[in-house]
Design a protein that fits this description.
By secondary structure, the protein is of the alpha/beta class. It folds into two domains: 2-110, NAD(P)-binding Rossmann-like Domain (Rossmann fold); 118-275 and 310-329, Dihydrodipicolinate Reductase, domain 2, CATH 3.30.360.10. The protein has helices at residues 2-11, 29-38, 50-57, 71-80, 95-108, 122-133, 162-179, 284-296, 305-324; strands spanning 23-25, 45-47, 61-64, 84-87, 112-114, 139-147, 183-191, 203-210, 215-221, 234-239, 242-246, 252-257, 267-270, 328-329. Strands 13-12-11-10-6-9-8-7-14 form a nine-stranded mixed sheet, covered by helices on one side. Strands 3-4-5 form a three-stranded parallel sheet, sandwiched between helices. A two-stranded parallel ribbon has the order 1-2. Strand 10 and strand 11 form a beta hairpin. The longest helix has 20 residues, at 305-324.
């Protein structure tokens, strides 16, 4: 992940020239040095102790690209040193830890944002605008399928609740954003399918209740071979006037009712308008550009922790429901 972030910091047109990398910290200094060499960061200090590094180089920004269990201490250390912090997801391993980081950022007067790069995918933003336009009528339901046979190796294959905790946060955050609704409750069934190469929770099925009686269903698996969906899932959005299908990539099909008689009503196709500001839909680079703009403008970015915790709450409520086999309410 550090490679992807350094590439965005140093090469993305929205960001290039705005950030100077002054230090790299890793438990293994050879790893940090190799990354510095790869990106020509000869002037960057290499270290293994984050607290000592921040005291030495006194940076404005900290990019947190650690495994989830280390996140709270890394973010808290950065905020203590007066850094604005941009974290990988999930923002915390519990809601209590997430709330603590929100309070620490508020006390420090610094921005803590989370990498929800799917927010900036063109399709996600186009759908949000179509729903807001009322072209489909009032939204009543959204449904998504996420099925990928992903062989990562490494820590993910040993994680508990791996799909819900490590990947579903992207999909659930996108659903909340596109729908423009508040998550209220969930019932979830989680399992680890036969043949799974993960130790726990590679698949999940969840029914979320959103505000305004909107229903969101999620079906997903990271151990499903043979017919991969997009990484953004395959989606169906149902409104009172019609339905939109999105394959998670470049295919949109939207149809609305065009008649008032017949067992099945006549339909007509409608367009999903392109974005005038498509330059702001470059994933990681757009998250970073929004993070920097928020700091410059003294405001909270779109993916600030105090907003992202609402998506994290969806994840933890789904995990709790799977464990208890009960409907769980969502309150943040």
């Amino acid at each position: 992940m550090s490679k992807g972030w350094l590439k965005a910091i140093l090469e993305a047109p929205e960001v290039a020239g705005r950030v100077e990398v002054v230090g790299l910290v890793d438990l293994d200094p050879a790893v940090a040095q190799a990354r510095a060499d790869e990106f020509g960061l000869g002037g960057a200090v290499i270290g293994t102790d984050l607290d000592a590094m921040l005291a030495k180089v006194k940076p404005d920004l900290l990019f947190d690209v650690v495994v989830p269990v280390a996140r709270h201490d890394v973010v808290a250390t950065g905020l203590k040193h007066g850094c604005h912090v941009l974290s990988e997801k999930p923002m915390a391993t519990s809601l209590a830890a997430g709330q603590d980081l929100i309070e620490k950022a508020k006390t420090a007067g610094r921005v803590h944002a989370v990498v929800q790069n799917r927010r900036f995918i063109a399709g996600v933003r186009r759908i949000r605008r179509l729903i807001e336009s009322g072209a489909l009528g009032e939204l009543t339901a959204l449904h998504c399928d996420f099925f990928i046979g992903a062989h990562f190796g490494g820590f993910r294959e040993q994680m508990d609740n791996v799909l819900l905790l490590d990947m579903a946060i992207h999909t659930l955050d996108a659903a909340r954003f596109m729908a423009g609704k508040v998550p209220l409750a969930v019932y979830c069934l989680e399992n680890n399918p036969r043949g799974s190469w993960y130790s726990h929770g590679a698949a999940a099925n969840a029914i979320f209740e959103f505000s305004d009686d909107v229903v969101f269903t999620y079906r997903g698996s990271w151990a499903a071979e043979g017919a991969n969906t997009s990484w953004e899932s395959a989606w169906r959005f149902v409104g009172t006037k019609g339905t939109l299908l999105w394959d998670g990539e470049d295919s949109f099909e939207a149809k609305v009712v065009a008649g008032d008689s017949g067992f099945l009503r006549d339909l007509k196709s409608i367009d999903v308008p392109e974005l005038a500001d498509a330059a702001q839909t470059h994933g990681h680079a757009s998250v970073l550009a929004e993070f920097l703009a928020a700091i410059d403008e003294n405001r909270q970015p779109e993916t600030a922790g105090n907003d992202n915790i609402k998506s994290l709450a969806m994840v933890f409520a789904a995990i709790e429901s799977a464990k208890t086999k009960q409907r769980v309410t969502i309150a943040v």
